Give the backbone structure.
Amino acid sequence: MSTAVSVIIPTYNWSEALRVSIASALAQTYRDFELLVIGDCCTDDSEEAALSFGDGRIRWHNLETRSGSQSGPNNHGISIAAGSLIAYLGHDDVWHPGHLASLIATMKDTGADIACAVTAMYGPPGSGIRGLSGIFVGGRHRMDDFVPPSSMMHRRSLIDRIGPWGHPEETADAVDSALLRRAYNAGARPRSTERLTVFKFNSAWRRDSYVRRDASEQRRMLERLTADPGRCAEEEWAGLLRAMREKRLIETRMPGGAAGPPGGFYHECLRNRGLEDGEVCELTEVRRFSIEDQSSALDWHGVERSEEWGTFRWSGPSPVAVLALPVRVPPRFRLRLQVLNFLQADVPREVTLAVAGQPVAFTWHEAGGPAVLLEASVKLADAPAGPLRVRIEVARLRCPFFETGGANQDQRWLGVGVSWIELEPLPPEDATAFPQPAASAP
C-alpha cells in the first residue's frame, strides 16, 4: 500500500494556535505527507499563518460557508486528499515528532483500518485534570473507547464504506463519536500505537476559549517537545500518573448512546467555547438567577440540592468558574452572590471576582449557617452587549477525600458552592450606591 499521508487540520479563527499545530506537524520524523489546512470560513489571518511556513507540503483552503464544526473541513479535506491514509490534527492540539511514524508502523504491522496514538488530554489551567485515550483493556478496542481525531489515522477507503463526517445538527453525539460508532459497526477497530504522541487541549473544556484565544499552553508544549521530545513524553506520563493518584484523571469514554436532542451536544460545546450566546434582555429591575442552567464545561460540577439551602453547584475542578447571565446590564449595578461555604474557605482571601473581564472588589458577611453573602457595586466602562459573564476564581481547590484522610468519600476537587446570584440596576446619579471597598487580598 502507499504510505503517502494526507494530514487535515480543520481550523476556525485561531491563528496563534494554528501556527503551533502546523509547526508540530512539520516537525514529524516521517516526511511523506501533505498538510491540508481547511478553514471553516475563516475571517482572521489564518491563511497568512498557514502559508508563512513556506513549506510546499502545505495547502490552504477556506470554505465559503461556515459549517460550525470540524465535520465540514474534514469532509472537504478528504475530498481533495492525495494520500491513501488520512490523519487529523486539531488546530489547538500538538503532536510529538514521532507521531506519524508510529501510526504508519502500526497500520503496516496490523493491517488495521484505523490506528490511534495514546493521547494526554489537559483540563483547564490550574485544574490538574487529565484525560487518557488510546490505552485499551487487553489491547482490544471496545465500543465505549473514545479516540480523539488528533490521535487517529485511517484508510481513506474507510470513508467510502461508512460515509463522510456527519453534520453536528443531525446527531446528539459529538461528530467524532458518531464517526467512530459507525466505523465500529462496520467492523473497523482502532489499533493503538501504545505511544504517547498526542497532547490535546480540548477547547470545550476551557470556558470562552474562542473569546480569549490563548495559545500559551500549546506554545509551551511545543517548546518542550522541540528541546527534548523523549523527556517531554516521560514527564507527561508522570503527569498522568500523578493525576490518577490525585483523583484528577477523568474517564474519556464515549457515551453509550445518543441522549438529548440532535445538535444538543454541539450547541453546548459552542456555548462553552464562547461561540454562541442565547437571547438577552435588559436589566431593569432586581433579578435573581439560580445556576441550574449554567453550561458546565469543567468549571462547574452538577446541580445539588440542600433541604435548607435549596439548589446549588460547586465550582471546580477548574479554579476559575464563569456564570453567563442572559442580561444586558447598565453601566452601574449592584451584585450579590450567595456562597455556601461548606468547606470553610477563607472567602475574602481565597475568592476573587471579575465582571465582564474587569476585577471587582467585594464586601462579605456571614448570612447564617454556611451561607456567605458577597456584595459589590460595579461600574463598567463598557457594558457588554451580550450575556454578562461573572468570573469566580478560587486560590485553592479542596478534595473532601484528601481533606478528611479518606473519611469523606467525595473525590471531587471543589472550589465554592454557589446557590444564586442577584443583580440590581443602579442609576448613574445614585450617590448612595453600595460603596466600592478596597480589594481583598487573594
Summary: Residues 229-245 form the longest helix (17 residues). The chain has a mean pLDDT of 93. The chain has two domains: 5-267, 279-425.
